[in-house]
C-alpha cells in the first residue's frame, strides 16, 4: 500500500494476467495506484531483487493490499471478491460458480501459460507464432463448446463474472497472435459486448500508464 | 452420477490434476466411483467423442456430481468446498485463503501446464526431461520462498488446505522428472508429512483401479 493506504497493482500494460485484475479493480471501484513492471526492459524488471522480494514468482500481476502482497490473478480476484463483494464477480449459485471457475481455470491454466512470454522464449523465434496459435486454438475449441451451454449475455448468464475478466484479455492475445476467430462466434460476441463496458475500456492495454505512445488509443 | 446417485470421477492414475481431486474426495469422505480414462491408450481415451461430449477440454479430471459435470481440478475442489464444507480445505481468514489460492494457482497454472503430457509431446523426445525440469525448478524456487512465510505443518498454517492437494502431486511429478529436491527443504518436509495422511495414501497414483500391476504399491 502507498503511504495514503491505497493498494498498489504491479502491472505490465500488455500482460493479459494483469489486465484481468485491472478489470476487477475497475468494476469494484477500488481506488489504487499502478506500478508498471516492464517485462522486457532491463532484461525484465520482474527479475530485479527488489521485485522478487515482493513476488518470488517474478511475474505480474501482484497486488499490495491490506498489508499483504498477493500474486496470481485469480487468487487476487477471489480475495477482492471476498473482501469487497460489491458488485459480485461470482454468481450466488454454487453450480454457476463452478462454471465461472472452470472457464477461468481453462483460460488461466489451460491456455495462457502455454503462450506467455517466458515459454515463447524457450520454443525459439520461428516457432513462436504456430506454438501460441496451437495453444489458443485448442483452448478456444473447448471454450466455445462450453460457452454454448453456459453463456447468456456474458460467459455465465447475464452478469459479468470472473470468467469474463479472463476472456477478454485472452481474446486480445489471440488477436495479437493472428488466430482466426471465425470458428468462435460465442467467444467473439461476448468479447465485443465486454469491450464496450467502461471497466474493460479503462483497464485496456492501450490505455495504461506504461503503454508506449505508438500503441495508445 | 451413477444410477445410485454417486458422483463419478473421470481420472487417470498418473495425472497429478486427477490426484488433487481424489485427495479432496477422500478428505471430505465423499462416496464416489472412479471411471478411468487412459491418456495414452487408444491414442488417448480423452479424445473420444463420448468423453469430449462430457468434457470439451479433453482432459482429466472431470467430476459428474449433483447433475452437472465440472472440469478443471481447482474449480471442482472449490465446488466441493462450497457444497460439502466439512472438513474445510480453505481457511476462514481471507488473507490465508489468498495464500492458499496463490500457492494452488502457482502450481496449477505456473508449473503443471508446462510439464504435462500434451506439451511434452510438442517439445520433442530429447527435450522433454530438461524442459519439464526447468518448469518445475523455476516454480519450486518461488514456491519454497513463499512457503517459508506461509507454512506451518502444511503449506498454509497447520491445517491441510487446497494448496497441499496441489503440492504432493506436483512433488511426485518432480520426482518422476528427476528434479533434485535438495534445494527445497520446506517443500520436501511438507510433502513427507502429507504422504503419511490416509487421504493422500488411498488416492495415490500407485493405488488406483487403473494403476498398472508393475507400478502398484
UniProtKB/TrEMBL annotation, chains A, B:
Gene Ontology biological process terms, A to Z: glutathione metabolic process; L-phenylalanine catabolic process; L-tyrosine catabolic process
Alphabetized UniProt keyword annotations: Cytoplasm, Isomerase, Multifunctional enzyme, Phenylalanine catabolism, Transferase, Tyrosine catabolism
Predominant location: cytoplasm
Places the protein is found: Cytoplasm
UniProt EC number: 2.5.1.18, 5.2.1.2
Family from the record: Belongs to the GST superfamily. Zeta family.
Protein name: Maleylacetoacetate isomerase
Organism annotation: Marmota monax (Woodchuck)
Species lineage: Eukaryota, Metazoa, Chordata, Craniata, Vertebrata
Amino acid at each position: 500500500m502507498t503511504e495514503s493506504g491505497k493498494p498498489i497493482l504491479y502491472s505490465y500494460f500488455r500482460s493479459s494476467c494483469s489486465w484481468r485484475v485491472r478489470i476487477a479493480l475497475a468494476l469494484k471501484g477500488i481506488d489504487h495506484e499502478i506500478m508498471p513492471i516492464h517485462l522486457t526492459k532491463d532484461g525484465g524488471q520482474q527479475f530485479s531483487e527488489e521485485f522478487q522480494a515482493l513476488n518470488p514468482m517474478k511475474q505480474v500481476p501482484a497486488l499490495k493490499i491490506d498489508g499483504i502482497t498477493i500474486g496470481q490473478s485469480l487468487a487476487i480476484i477471489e480475495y477482492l471478491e471476498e473482501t469487497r463483494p460489491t458488485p459480485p464477480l461470482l454468481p450466488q449459485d454454487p453450480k454457476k460458480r463452478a462454471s465461472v471457475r472452470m472457464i477461468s481455470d481453462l483460460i488461466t491454466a489451460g491456455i495462457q501459460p502455454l503462450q506467455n512470454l517466458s515459454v515463447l522464449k524457450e520454443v525459439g523465434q520461428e516457432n513462436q507464432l504456430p506454438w501460441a496459435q496451437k495453444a489458443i486454438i485448442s483452448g478456444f475449441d473447448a471454450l466455445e463448446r462450453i460457452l454454448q451451454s453456459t453463456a447468456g449475455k456474458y460467459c455465465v448468464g447475464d452478469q459479468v463474472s470472473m470468467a469474463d475478466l479472463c476472456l477478454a484479455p485472452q481474446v486480445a492475445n489471440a488477436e495479437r497472435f493472428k488466430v482466426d476467430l471465425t470458428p468462435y462466434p460465442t467467444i467473439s460476441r461476448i468479447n465485443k459486448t465486454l469491450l464496450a463496458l467502461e471497466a474493460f475500456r479503462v483497464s485496456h492495454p492501450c490505455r495504461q500508464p506504461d503503454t508506449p505512445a505508438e500503441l495508445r488509443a
